Hints:
By secondary structure, the protein is an alpha/beta fold.
Amino acid sequence: MCGIMAYIGGRDTVEVLLEGLRRLEYRGYDSAGVAVSVDGKIELVRSKGKIANLAALLEGNKPEGRSGIAHTRWATHGPPSTKNAHPHPDCEGHLAVVHNGIIENYLELREQLEAEGHTFRSETDTETLAHLFEKYYDGDLEKAVRRGLKEVKGSYAVVAMSDREPGLLVAARQYSPLIVGLGEKKGENFVASDPSAIIAYTRQAYLIDNGEMVMLRADGVQVKTLSGKPVKKPVFHIEWDAEMAEKGGHKHFMIKEIFEQPHALRQTIGDRIVGREMALKLEGLGLSDGYLRRVKKIAVIACGTASYAGMAGQYAIEKVCGVPVIVDVASELQHRECVFDKNTLGIAISQSGETADTLQAMRMAHRQGAKLLAITNAIGSSVARESDGLLYIHAGPEIGVASTKAYTSQILAMLLFCVHLGRVREAVTPRVARRLLRGIKQLPDLAERTLEQADHIKKLAKKHQHIMRYLYLGRGAHYCSAMEGALKIKEIAYLDAEGYAAGEMKHGPLALVTEEVAVLSAVVEGPQYEKALGNLQEIRARGGKVIAVANENDEEIAKYADDVIPIPKTEEVLSPVLAGIPMQLYAYYVADLWNREIDQPRNLAKSVTVE
Ligand code: M6R
């Protein structure tokens, strides 16, 4: 949500900033801007809309300097417009700032600064920072930023520059991600909100923690606490390379990432299943067997797609281990009383590892004495760092706003944990545990086979192109598939879609079914199969079209559905990994027929770092 890129060094500064912004565009894309230090002055260029608009403005009119800051915005305070775009200058344009996060007391600060004579030009909370730093600036930017931030409540990743100190950029972090890229070439350094902005230039980084400040110069980087104490940071090696974050010949990142799922699933399994006995080596898990035996309840902490991966895990853990699991979206969970205590394990699931609601709920869980296990894709992210134990999914960079490969890899990570928990608590026999793990090991190949349905699914999308309203139904293991399928098509095709537990149909939603409605449903073999068929009959009796995702050996299903998308058979608790794939493909092809901006759907951002 919003992206920051800053550079100091000998390259073409504007090009470096634009390149960084392009790689961050998935985080927010309603306006963008750069500020460059040129001959003792700050030159500011901003524009409404995507980075391409900004690049067009800069074409033939490029400020040339050796340091600059840049931003791509997802509006929170004030609508998308040039005046609300970052960077924001102070009154005289001597200072400029870019900021991610929310300044909670900005109205109070703004009133005070206006009373002191500062003139504001935007409706943003960020502009307050520019004026605060101006107020305290006496030739020392580091001091001004430190002093100004003392008055600020809220979350920030901020980078500031001054025309009087062109060789310095000052950055600070409080609850919004910030990373320093250490130049591999001598004489340059970078600051960004996200590693993908800098991986084209360097893979050596400092991960900045809450309460830290960075003084970035071409020839060195100093990290201090907000109170000025020097901090020695370990160098962190970013494993992703620039190519992994390219489209690689695909029309959209989303479809590339859908097809990467077999590989992503293999990466999630990695070398975690060992030997003939199929021992589980969950390095970093950080939760002792004794603790796992004492756990009385698990609470999944997640938002959106990640919460639906949590639902798949809920079904598996309750069935295999007999441990109660609750799943509620983190924005609600963080305000619910009595969810956590010392016998509750919180499992935080987050692709980006920076989702504000997830982090807030995690902090609440910690305060109430729970331990936390993080399942995330983002190495060194806040979710990873604020947890007691970790399971990285290693799915590789996910750029499309719609989550795809992270979803299936998150489910897989939950399944690995489920088997481990079942073994530790002796809730599964060694034979059943091995059977589940054999099934898990087959999932990447089965995902490959599921992807062979892509052309068939594309044809179905075309056939049903006129449908404007969808219901997604699921039961048991596939309640999550219904929720996730509906979210995908809403998010990228902008079509009306609701996900329901199929058993709820008679309690209301059945009234929505007409000939203009299509129903997508995952109906795989398992204890609820017959009931799920019953639900399909109810839909068809009322004229609704049924598209069923069903096991490839299912000979009955054709009688209950207008169209069938076959998926390979696997254990019921593992099957959400496979059923998720046709849901993604169907949403993708429908959205593409509607010519939607699939990778950057309107109003959305990849990583939601504000509550
Ligand atoms: O980065 P996270 O996994 O924490 O993100 C959670 C949700 O914001 C995310 O899954 C969102 O729902 C996706 N855009 C859905 O495709």
